[in-house]
Amino acid sequence: MLRIGLLTSGGDCQALNATMRAIVKTMVNRAAEPVEICGFEDGYQGLIYGRYRVMEASEFEGILALGGTILGTSRTPFKRLDTPEADGVDKVAAMKETYRDLSLDCLFVLGGNGSTKTAHRLAQEGLRVIALPKTIDNDTWGTDLTFGFSSAVEVATTYIDAIRTTASSHGRVFVVEIMGHKVGWIPLHAAVAGGADVCLIPEIPYEMDRVAAAVERALDAGSRCAIVAVAEGALSSEEAALPKKEYKKRVASRTAPSVAYEIARELEARTGRETRVAAPGHAQRGGAPDAQDRVFATQCGVEAALGFLEGEHGFMVAQRGGRMCHFALDEVAGKLKRVDPSSDLVREARALGMSFGDE
Ligand code: F6P
Fold it and tell me: How far, in Å, is the centroid of ligand 1 from the Cα of 186?
């Protein structure tokens, strides 16, 4: 009998259930012995407090297209891993205890950067752990893709399409704020797919004069509206030059609710054009996974399960150059994958006339 644990940790995304289904189906089809599945509730919290349920393989049927996570999720920040919980519980010790009490053969962690760092820590503590790259942000180092990203781009793009019709009717400028945490993968892809005039991402600091000039150019060229796609983590060149602490202070002292509102206020002042802010927000993580995410999530789940059945652990499943592979957790944990400002897509977007606010 094999006994595996499953947990989904951090911000949710669209293809978590599709990934777990693939892990379980592969186990059932390929394991030489029966498999017992322990589903931990609400991410690492379930592992800390021993909140799990023994699940039937049938519970993972019919969830390929279901958004969210049937296990629930929560954030257990890596930087506070060694700080006891409010009730005094030592998180790492408690997780090890649950794992050992259940005699798990492996723990599958579906998580983003922080969760993968915790998975790495648990592996260092002697647990058999396999990580799977979940996040809409696509910022996981070592893999070209993360599951959730494609669906989030789809939501953000559809949102820009909808904003464009009302922006055009009213002759307005719209600043659309798009998620992505500290990187610009979703905003960049949605800006290209949605035909935005300007795209501001953390990897390419902007100058307000240049953003305003790009908006004027779009309107002068005959467009009735201008769309500025702004990453939630976008920053000006002046902010980018600040030491990290100073930048954080600057963000904390914002009078506007977010960077998009600051930019909109400045744009309206400089161009005299009526400017609005819109944001798809958490809808970017919601709803059904798109076809690409279903396929990639399935590949990740299958490869993770096959890797385990072949006796491997301590790795994250990844895709590099179209091929599925494994990366040692040692190599992946703690690194961020950012947009390369000299990448093909940025170069091509510039060739189309899209401004990144830097030139
Ligand atoms: O990591 C996914 C993400 O949606 C980021 O894009 C965003 O910055 C963050 O999570 C929002 O977190 P929360 O759901 O805690 O508001």
Answer: 12
